[in-house]
Amino acid sequence: MTVIEQRGAYRPTPPPAWQPRTDPAPLLPDPEPYRVLGTEAAAKTDPELLRTLYAQLVRGRRYNAQATALTKQGRLAVYPSSTGQEACEVAAALVLKEQDWLFPSYRDTLAVVARGVDPVEALTLLRGDWHTGYDPYEHRVAPLCTPLATQLPHAVGLAHAARLKGDDVVALAMVGDGGSSEGDFHEALNFAAVWQAPVVFLVQNNGFAISVPLAKQTAAPSLAHKAVGYGMPGRLVDGNDAAAVHEVLSDAVRHARAGGGPTLVEAITYRVDAHTNADDATRYRGDAEVETWRQHDPIQLLEHELTERGWLDEAGIEAARQDAETMAAALRERMNQDPALDPMDLFAHVYAEPTSQLREQRDQLRAELEAEAESEGAHR
Question: Considering the entire predicted model, what is its pTM?
């Protein structure tokens, strides 16, 4: 006999005692992306903070341009540019304290550099020279993550462990709109909300998952609305408004640090450049669309606000540009130097305790290299 066949066991509606676990109203994002620049709220922002954001945006734009040029010169294997998304990148790095952790995706090189990682070391993975290129513990920056969204559960695990230990640590995990369609995205948000882990999820919605537009990925009103289903607040922000992104992320980080649990922030932005140097973006979007977004450029928006309020003059603008050029020149010079690479480094920093298979592979490669060296020596 099934449950439905049992007399009196089937109820067409839930019992009266049923009620939602969480009131959904406070979790819902604003109907429109939150903005600061061009609004009355801009007058209340710290001018020094805005000038710092501006200098970092200019520096980041130049970094993107220089790294893209390096791919054309064969000095980088690939570079996923974040041109147009600099406001999200810079704000994500600046809202964190020294002890906090940043979990970037492969497009978030600029955030990694803004966090303090050496510009050349941040590109080492994309050059193919090292597993990561930098020490994650030095700046509390996880490795650049190429698989989509796999860094999100790691961020939750670290944040949850920190809370259990009583450490004052918040993790900020960055992901693209394409990553929100991955299973790891669901698992991370679900665990984070259940555990009330001190983690902030920043989704940079740049319109496309390579060539797939957002409308073909989800029918949700916004990606921020997905937060409600997990029981955490969702925030929607203009991702090209550096002041707004910084404010929203700061609020989310403070909320997490105070024990309030996770927040999902969706930043509406746009990838001006192609997906990578190997992508032909003209096959799936038109020039008119790109030009429309160029009119909403994060650097221009912030520069206009600063100059209109008298908080930035021509000398300040030129100083920011010169600093960016100095950085680009140093990056160019260092990247044009051929690094001294040791093939045996392939086996370093893979496991804390190397596995038997890894040791076998290491010994095999060492034997092959020694045999090759002996062969070359015999022919001299």
Answer: 0.90
